[in-house]
Amino acid sequence: WPPESVVVASLGRLAPEKSPEILFDAVALAATQDPRLRLLVVGGGPSEAGLRARAASSGLAARVLFTGSLSRPAALAWMADADLLLFTSRTETQGLVLAEGLSAGLPAIAVDGPGVRDSIRDGVDGIIVPHLPPGSLVDRLSDTIARLAQDRAGRSAMAKRARADADRFAVRRRVAQVEALYRSIAGPRR
Fold first, then answer.
1. What is the pTM of this model?
2. Is 40 helix (H, G, I), strand (E, B) or coil?
3. pLDDT digits (tens, 9 = 90+) for 175-190
4. What is the pLDDT of residues 137-160, one digit of tens each?
5. How many angstroms from the chain centroid is the CA of residue 93?
6. C-alpha distances out from residue 92 to 24, 65, 87, 116, Å
């Protein structure tokens, strides 16, 4: 891709509950506003063949790269080539994909849902888009992608904040949070 490309990445399994068609349509629509946009689809799954066909039939095949299923380290290595992370899953409960993307310094655009607000600080290291009907959601995501693609300084600031606070996703920190929660529920020892 040309060096001026703005790469929007998707990380994870391609399955219906992850709403990959929303992701694809949002980037395709945003690309009509900004021809620098590219889509990096990191991962594979049952929806992959349909997305590949959609890319070919829409004329966007040259702007989309599918990596297929990869090991976790290989998938994360691909993320280094991205400028934004787009997250459209309806079923993520732990926010692992978001934590990995943010830890890699990728500002995230995500549809509000389980696990999203535990990971993204809206307006700080990403943007949370409300869950809307599919057509409206594609429009809102597309506008957000196009806006961030044009705002290099804003993306850079979000990336810096995401990287600076990546420690909040460390396992030891999460374990301490869970322990504190259990202690608050259990009460003092007798």
1. 0.91
2. strand
3. 888 899 999 999 887 7
4. 999 999 999 999 999 999 999 999
5. 14
6. 18, 23, 10, 8
The Cβ of residue 168 has, within 10 Å, a number of other Cβ atoms equal to 14
Q: Please check whether residue 18 is in contact with residue 90, taking contact to mean a CB–CB distance below 8 angstroms.
A: yes
Distance separating alpha carbons of residues 36 and 58, to the nearest angstrom: 17
Query: Do 135 and 46 form a contact (C-beta atoms < 8 A)?
Result: no
Closest CA to 72 of 93, 104, 116, 42: 42
Structural domains present in the chain: 6-186 (3.40.50.2000)
Beta bridge partners of 43: 68
The secondary structure of 63-115, three-state, reads HEEEEECCCHHHHHHHHCCCCEEEECCCCCCCCHHHHHHHHCCCCEEEECCCC
Interatomic CA distance for residues 164 and 162, integer angstroms: 6
Q: What is the pLDDT of residues 84-130, one digit of tens each?
A: 999 999 887 778 899 999 999 999 999 999 889 989 999 999 999 99
Give the number of residues written for the chain: 190
Q: Hey, what amino acid is at 34?
A: D
Beta bridge partners of 85: 9, 108
